[in-house]
Amino acid sequence: MRDHLLQLAEQESKLRHRLALSGELLEGYHPEIRAIHEANARELELAIDDEGWPTADEIGDDALEAAFLIALNAMSRPSFQRRCLTHMKMAANRGEIPARHAAMLEDRIRVLEGRPQIYGTQLDWDEDGHLAPLPIDAEESLDQRRAKVGLPPLAQALAQAEAEAAASQEHPAAEWLHRQHALADFAHEVGWR
Known about the structure:
mainly alpha
């Protein structure tokens, strides 16, 4: 499973990089990205059916990170993402995976459902062209919740995300409002809302 997960993640990473450089990545959910996310989700689902959620002891930290990213990017498969979250929460409670994995997937699911996130891990470009967290529930205690799951303070995470976006030459979408509507339409289309 290890080598297969790493190969799937590498293919997605290369495609994401190519589309980010061309600017196509920010023009809604690009069909090529969606196709690779769906194919990777099917592969991970088969592995979970056979062996359950993987742990670092079983497949190594890098392949565990790959499995996490595949689950995180399976946005067109609501029931699968929710199933992954259940597995990940149990594994995190047993100390078998980083708690941040379950936290980030929970935030992704909440955002797709149209609800405020808990940990502030889901960022998007704002109207002014800066990366910002999507709506957060109970912001006053956010950094405490983040610390409990091994995430840095939000200000630090935002600075790092901005630096990574600049280094990868990723830019905000030209049509911010159009992008927001496209994401909402996608969430309705696949059954999140």
